Amino acid sequence: MPAAEILFLLAIAFGAYTYLGYPLLLKLFTLGRGRGHRKKEATSWPPVSITVPAFNEEHQIRDTLESLLALEYPEEKKQILIVSDASTDGTDDIVRSFEDRGVELVRQPERRGKTAAENAVAPLLRGEIVVNTDASIRIHPGSLKELVAPFADPQVGLTSGRDVSVGKEGGEANQGEAGYVGYEMWIRDLETRLGGIVGASGCCYAIRRELHGIPLPEGLSRDFAAALNTRERGFRPISITAATCVVPRGRSLRKEYPRKVRTITRGMQTLLFKRALLNPLRFGLYSWMLASHKVCRWLLPWAGVLALLALAVLSLQQTWALVLFSLALLVMALGAGAWAFGGHRALPRLLAVPAFLLMANVAVLHATIRTLRGRSDAVWDPTRR
Fold it and tell me: Rounded to an integer, what distance in angstroms lies between the CA atom of residue 150 and that of residue 192?
């Protein structure tokens, strides 16, 4: 068998394992298991602190605060704290107008990024449980109790909400993301049943205050590190299906691309920082889940490049390879065209899906290069959704 054919088959097998084999093994290992945590009725609710890092969010911060105030939870046990990362618009003034309703504002004197803002506010948090969310997210009114109730189990250290990706009526260029988000939530549910998730939802998650207070370098991803810190210290990070939060999709793939690159870069750097959790002798199945869920997905686009090169070589001699190579180029051309010219326009799913997949995989390649070069993205520009 030619070397190019072996390389192609290995790349295909790797892709099949990453997106099909891994979840099927999770499903097999979790047969007969329950939801992965004991559901208990809370007899008393612990105090919680809800934190929202914000930079120039005047267009939506008022609605954000109204939705947080509407969450079903005892008012005397709910602290809402907005951390302004040196906003230059009217964000701070709007937040101050809610002070008589119990909302607190902490302003950073200079922009240092989301993780730095969360580090700075940690000593001001009064809750036993800390809930982290973003200004663009809308949490279902009953979801806060769903997130907090599992902490009655002393083994639970973190609970992550279930993202529901939504777009504007009539569709948009980025509608391919909805299927990926649904797939990701399914994987987290299986991981919860087996032992614990490998990353929390940055849109909404809750964590014990002592775990939240673990210092984190400013250029790293706190939601990813939170799950890793939780497992490293002997607690379980889990996903809660009933704790739903609405995540609006960016309508433009071109504007979504920089966010993807920044997020993946921070994720890679976070895993390098917490690489000890990849040791199976210490963390058993969790290290396998971490490698399969994160490392394999980050390696897959590079395997795709090798598969495409192998097909190009084989297409000179094999008809089947020529057909597959032509189809691959066609799909890539459709995706690139939709990505480049779609803008804010609605795209049919036939174009939206390949456009999103191409964008996401190119973002991984870009993020890998940035990580190898030591580039950091501590300061963030929130994606306007």
Answer: 12
Among 16-30, 58-72, 97-111, 171-185, name the one with the lowest average pLDDT. 171-185
> Rounded distance, CA 375 to CA 269, Å?
9
Longest dimension (CA), the chain: 75
Res. 339 pLDDT band, cuts 50 70 90: low
Query: Do 304 and 33 touch, CB atoms closer than 8 A?
Result: no
What's the pLDDT tens digit per position in 29-45?
Answer: 988 776 655 655 556 89
User: In the Cβ-directed half-sphere of 354, how many Cα atoms lie within 13 Å?
Assistant: 16
Report how far residue 24's alpha carbon sits from residue 148's, in angstroms, rounded to the nearest whole number: 30
Q: How many angstroms from the chain centroid is the CA of residue 127? A: 24
**Please, are residues 165 and 249 in contact by the beta-carbon 8 Å criterion?**
yes
Those residues whose C-beta lies under 8 Å from the C-beta of residue 29, and which sit 6 or more positions away, are: 194, 285
Of 94-108, 187-201, 237-251, the one with minimum mean pLDDT is: 237-251
Ranges of beta strands (E only) in 194-290 are: 204-208, 236-248
Closest by CA to 111, choosing from 85, 89, 90, 91, is 85
Q: Which CATH architecture has domain 48-252?
A: Alpha-Beta Complex (3.90)
Q: Percentage of the chain with pLDDT > 90? A: 62
pTM comes to 0.88
Q: Phi and psi at residue 293, in whole multiples of 5°?
A: -75, -40
- Write out the H or E segment, with its range, that includes residue 48: strand 48-54
Kindly tell me if the per-residue pLDDT of 118 is higher than 90.
no
What pLDDT does 378 receive? 62
**φ, ψ for residue 239, nearest 5 deg:** -105, 140
Name the burial class of residue 21, with classes exposed (0-12), middle (13-18) and buried (19+) by CB atoms within 10 angstroms of its CB.
middle
Query: Domain locations in the chain?
Result: 48-252
d(Cα 55, Cα 61) in Å, to the nearest integer?
10
Instruction: Take residue 196 and report the two structure tokens written for it.
Output: 């614990």
Q: Does an H or E element contain 83, and which?
A: strand 78-84
User: DSSP label at 379?
Assistant: S
